[in-house]
Amino acid sequence: MRNTKAQSTTQTAARLYAERHAEAQELLQLIASRLAEHKERQAARSADWGYAGDLGRITEQLAYVLADLGDASAVRAKGLEC
Q1: pTM flag (> 0.70)
Q2: How far is Cα 62 from Cα 43, in angstroms, rounded to an integer?
Q3: Which of 38, 33, 72, 30 lies closest to 57 in space, CA to CA?
Q4: Average pLDDT for residues 23-41, to the nearest whole number?
Q5: Fewest 10 Å CB contacts: which of 1, 9, 18, 19?
Q6: Domain residue ranges of the chain, discontinuous segments joined by +
């Protein structure tokens, strides 16, 4: 997407940050909801290792998100590359 003159005069860094912060909050709520649904599905098929695999991949991705926010402790704890 190209930044036009109209965008640059009406958009500020603070406004864009606020919009993206709100979007991140919405995504976190959706993640929490889907995580709860995932747990319910796993409970119905508790011997299925796929659910544990899903969460392994998801927790790695979340560790990287946390690192992007300034806390690499989860990345290090998992032995992942920063």
Answers
A1: yes
A2: 22
A3: 38
A4: 98
A5: 1
A6: 1-47, 49-82
Matching residue, tokens 């796929």: 50
Alpha helix positions (H), 1-82: 5-10, 13-44, 49-68, 73-77
What CA–CA distance (Å, rounded) separates 64 from 82?
8
pLDDT at 5 over 80: no
| Model confidence band, residue 6 (pLDDT cutoffs 50, 70, 90) | low
Nearest to 61 by CA among 52, 74, 73, 71: 74
Q: Please report where in the chains the tokens 């544990």 appear, as a residue.
A: 52
CB atoms within 10 A of CB 73: 10
Determine the Cα–Cα distance for residues 10 and 73; give it in Å rounded to an integer.
38
Between residues 39 and 5, the one the model is more confident about: 39
